[in-house]
Input
Amino acid sequence: MQTVEKAEGEAPVVPKAVGNPLSAWLFFRRNLSRTAPVTLVIVLSVVLIGTVVSIIRSIDLTVLTVYGYNRYFLVAVPRNGEKLPPTVEFLIRSEPLAHEIYRISVCFTNIHTIFGKFPFVLFGLTQDEMPKMLRLTRMRLVAGRLPGEGEAACAVSVGIARNRNLKLGDIVSAPDIEDSFSPVPIKLVGLLDGENWFAVVPKEFVQKHFFPPMEELVVAAPSPELQPELDKRMDKTLDKRQVRLFTYGQLVRELRSSLRNLYLIMNIVIAIVVLVIAIMMGMLSNIFFTQRLPEFALLAAMGYTRMMLLGRVLRETVLMVVFGWVLGVLLSMGILWALYLWVFEPRGLLLNPMDWMAYRYTIPVPVAVLAFAALSVGPRLLALDPVLVIERKV
Amino acid sequence: MLITDEVTLTYKEADRVVTAVDGVSIEVRAGEFVGIMGPSGSGKSSLLYLMSGLKVPTSGQVRYRNLVIHLMSERERMLLRRRDFGFVFQQPYLLPYLTALENVLVAVPGNREAHQRALQLFERLGLSHLANRYPHKLSGGERQRVCVVRAMVHRPQIIFADEPTASLDHLNGHAVIQLLAQYREQGAVVVVTHDPEMLADADRVYTLRDGRLIKTTVG
Output
């Protein structure tokens, strides 16, 4: 049998300061057994989506960085011979925006990417042109030297050297390297650094050892801002049967086009993950709501309107999903930074742990969870009859 | 203050129509301790729900300060319940994640004045030592007394108590009734019970049977 409890003899208790007892934060803190698992699911789904999208988007990043030099110039390549027809060259040279023009020859070496090996251009330049092209592409020599005239040597970006695990004096291309072939071994004599990846080799060497000895034109606008306009004009003016143009805009378009299916698959996977998580959260919200029915019935009986109660549920859910999302994004950044520092960077692979576009893909997670929770709980709350709950008929 | 005028409440159960309250007219005056008595199923709880605006009568009307409650919008009824009425239910339900004091303040969140008043009530009712305790650390009697404080903290005009002693032992039941009876100094109290002993102090007792008012006793 119960007895009336007495306060006598007990030490006086100083009541703690009380804020709003119905605040979402207080509910979140005091119900960790419910809120923590839900938050954790949101965190994990955000981490899953954020990291996968960041890694997939590193393909984009890789291509745009590796070929980023194309922002500063276009390359006009002959289609039907070793040199551009004089009429084509005349049209290029007559273009007012064509500020700098270099006649170059190229050869290739391979670099590693997360989607396999990728050809990278070694720009064959004369001794005069090398410093000019480095200035144009905002690169600088940071170690070693530039290759001498006709020398079987090259200078490459630090990124390429790291990617290929090369150091000064190593061989970049050689007759016995299947995927980076050169009839004569090319030695690494200089390291470049800057905004892009770039590589130079003496033009005389390329023309002497690579067949056919093609000549291409590098055409640069007075400033990078004007380069897209120059690209557009050249694209309009020149006969594509005689010349092929490599521009940054075209590179981006082709990249987007070739990755379209990959992004489609990624979007489908994200949609499925979001849907599954949202349905699961909706069901969990329903279970939690059933457990809290007496609480809502009591508040309704005391005079809290349905909208006030719905607002409270939404505030609690918003807090939970926002908290989960922020935590998920921070955790993703941590994981991606760790991946970048310990896996990608040492191998010269590109990854941007702060890729906000990737984190935008995670926004549907909190939004869908909130929507499903509101849709599953809202109608029940609006139809709640407090008397039925109080009388224990529900 | 509050008058029920020939109120009737019917509802459908399976294929038959059940009349829970049948043309009951009663009155609650300011400062009164009113009891509603009757055996189980006599309609006393339904009458309390009608009086407090938790249910809408099938016919008749409930007037509070000359306002017909069921003609008010739902929002107005909610506001009325929140401001003018206090509730104590049979089950002493407290939000499990809030302390006793916080549970009391649920009736008036964010009101500093009410905070002080709650502390005074706890002190006056000898419950100060329970203020920081969570419901699972309270006995049934303590919980119900906290519920009584919660019903009082916003100084309602009327406190409605539906079988407040039903889940308590005799001693705790009496303590709760005493707390409620004391509230007469500030407002009216309506207590539904099947135990006549709990209404020994009542100013007026209405007895129901089968949904009908069969007896009115003025104390």
